[in-house]
Specification:
about 35% strand
């Protein structure tokens, strides 16, 4: 029997994530498309200086997704499961970062991995629309949570 903490990868930031009724599809479970929103919200929570205007103003820089890969392992049920997203960086380039996610569903004292994912993100200068190097502060935030890549199951 695993707990949420047992399943947390080294260096990952745990982000409790509420499930909403609007996340549920006609089959009675959280729809696969809701996971991308969960991962995005967790990424912004874990790495607030990475392209986010924390003072409420529109930022001149943005961390944009160029690729996502998600592997679903177990359904999430609204009203039954509590969700925690573990998020960490796995690779840091000059203007890009790879981010890993692990969605952990908890029911009572037991937890299991509901999905794993990875994203490649690129820092962009908003006025020009061109990639730009990450700043020292942004790099430091990702470096503090640098860990191993997500392990996907084979096809």
């Amino acid at each position: 029997m695993s707990t949420v903490e047992d399943l947390r990868p080294p260096h990952a930031v745990p982000v409790p994530t509420p499930l909403r009724w609007s996340d549920v599809d006609a089959f009675g479970h959280v729809n696969n498309t809701a996971f991308l929103r969960f991962f995005e919200d967790a990424r912004f929570t874990a790495f607030p200086a990475a392209g986010v205007g924390t003072d409420g103003r529109i930022s001149t820089r943005a961390l944009l997704a160029v690729r996502h890969e998600v592997e679903y392992r177990s359904p999430l049920i609204y009203g039954r499961h509590r969700l925690t997203i573990h998020v960490w960086a796995t690779r840091l380039g000059s203007s890009s970062v790879d981010v890993a996610y692990q969605a952990v569903a908890q029911e009572g004292d037991q937890a299991l991995v509901a999905a794993v994912a990875r994203s490649r993100m690129v820092m962009v200068d908003v006025p020009s629309g061109r990639p730009r190097p990450t700043s020292e502060d942004e790099r430091a935030q990702f470096t503090a949570h640098l860990g191993a890549p997500v392990q996907f199951r084979g096809w």
